[in-house]
Design brief:
The protein has 214 residues and is mainly α. The protein has a single domain, classed as nmb1532 protein domain like (Four Helix Bundle (Hemerythrin (Met), subunit A)). Helices cover 82% and strands 0% of the residues.
């Protein structure tokens, strides 16, 4: 009976660990997919300009504002405060990988500031500033692409092997619940409203707005 009960407890623990893995990883990867979608939209907007279209700067400001708020106030802090320390505790050999990811986050924050700077110059000084804005934005997007791939392919693989059920539940809570004071109901509604505005502002075929005139 004791052996049977132990086996049953082990099965329950295994299921809990698997569920925690799945939920936490799904949240992280979904956030990366959402970011990739926004970055793709920005890249498509650049292509339209390259084709001779005149931009609506509201679209750029909206997408970049979402990235700025989402990453700085939500995604990256929870990587830094929860996921990275837990993995480092369980797998000290991951320090090189985590340091690389932290450097990417720092580079991305710095680069995003440059994107906003060059966007303002492009908007107010004209077409002569477009190439600087374009190259800065594409460089930023590449940093974020590389970061997401590194997390999804390497960090999560190590985390699967090292984190305990309790660790995964902590990660799931951090990414799944908006404990940060910024993420009140009003804050979540602001994100929803921002998405709605973006969808209606972005030109077809990216969004539902009117096509940009050439």
């Amino acid at each position: 009976m004791v052996l049977g009960q132990q086996n049953g407890d082990n099965q329950v623990n295994n299921r809990l660990q698997a569920n925690s893995h799945m939920k936490a990883i799904e949240i992280i990867q979904t956030e990366h997919q959402n970011l990739e979608a926004v970055l793709f939209s920005l890249e498509q907007l650049l292509e339209l300009i390259d084709q001779g279209k005149q931009p609506d700067f509201r679209a750029f400001h909206g997408l970049l504002t979402y990235i700025d708020r989402f990453l700085d106030h939500y995604h990256h802090p929870k990587e830094h405060d929860q996921l990275f320390p837990l993995l480092l505790k369980r797998d000290p050999s991951s320090s090189g990988l985590i340091n690389r990811l932290e450097r990417q986050n720092h580079m991305a924050r710095t680069q995003l500031g440059q994107v906003f700077k060059h966007l303002s110059a492009y908007e107010f000084l004209g077409d002569a500033e477009y190439q600087a804005f374009r190259s800065t934005l594409l460089a930023y997007a590449e940093i974020e692409h590389q970061h997401a791939v590194l997390v999804d392919q390497e960090l999560i693989t190590r985390a699967r092997q090292s984190l305990t059920t309790a660790d995964w539940q902590q990660v799931e809570t951090a990414f799944g619940s908006h404990r940060d004071p910024m993420f009140t109901t009003a804050w979540r509604q602001e994100f929803a409203a921002l998405f709605d505005r973006l969808v209606t502002t972005l030109p077809t075929p990216i969004g539902l707005g009117d096509s940009w005139d050439g």
